[in-house]
Every structure is written in C-alpha cells, then in structure tokens.
C-alpha cells in the first residue's frame, strides 16, 4: 500500500489523499471518495515514493456507501516508484 494524492487533470476540482489497493509498474488500483468515469485523466502522486504519474481511469467500482475502487493505467510508461524497485530486486 502506498499513500498517494489523486487529482483530476481536466477540471482540477477533484483532489484527495488516498491509498493504493494494488500496484504495478503499468498501473494502480486506488480507493477514492469520488466516482470516476472510464477515460478520465488523473495524476497520481505517491507520498515519498517518486514522481507523479499521469494515468487514465479504466474502471470504477463501488466498494461501500462512500468509497470506490478505481483502476488506472499509465499509458506513458512505467512508474519509477521506489516501492516497485524493492519488489523487482527480490
């Protein structure tokens, strides 16, 4: 799990601090308080793990009354986050 700041790229109205549920070098699954649409463009900035990445929403599924799980892919390359380097070295 990585703490991240998730924000909309297009309108800038949505920004929240949240966490990843699952991650890989090509995308992440994050928990969000907002409903996202497939195709929405976002920025995911990990806290103390590396640079922000731009991503695209692939899916958004309701988790409970107030939260969603959102799948994001990184179309412009692989995430250079430190936590991923740890797993690749093992």
What are the key terms here?
six-stranded antiparallel beta barrel; mainly beta; Thrombin, subunit H
Notes on the protein architecture:
This protein is mainly beta. It has one domain: Beta Barrel (Thrombin, subunit H). Helix content is 9%, strand content 49%. The chain has one helix at 82-89; strands spanning 3-8, 15-24, 27-32, 41-46, 53-62, 68-73. Strands 1-2-3-6-5-4 form a six-stranded antiparallel β-barrel. Strand 1 and strand 2 form a beta hairpin. The protein is globular. The two termini are 17 Å apart. 21% of the residues are buried.
So what's the CATH class?
Answer: Mainly Beta
Would you tell me the structural class of the helices and strands? mainly beta
Main beta-sheet annotation: 6 strands, antiparallel, barrel
Identify the CATH homologous superfamily: predicted glycosyltransferase like domains
Briefly, what is this?
This protein is mainly β.
Helices and strands in order:
Elements: E1 3-8, E2 15-24, E3 27-32, E4 41-46, E5 53-62, E6 68-73, H1 82-89
Antiparallel strand pairs: 1-2, 1-4, 2-3, 3-6, 4-5, 5-6
């Amino acid at each position: 799990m990585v703490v991240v700041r998730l924000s909309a790229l297009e309108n800038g109205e949505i920004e929240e601090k949240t966490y990843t549920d699952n991650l890989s070098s090509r995308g992440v699954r994050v928990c969000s308080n907002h409903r996202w649409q497939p195709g929405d463009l976002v920025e995911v900035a990990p806290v103390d793990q590396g640079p922000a990445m731009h991503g695209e929403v692939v899916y958004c599924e309701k988790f409970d009354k107030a939260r969603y799980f959102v799948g994001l892919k990184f179309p412009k390359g692989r995430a250079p986050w430190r936590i991923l380097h740890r797993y690749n070295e093992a």
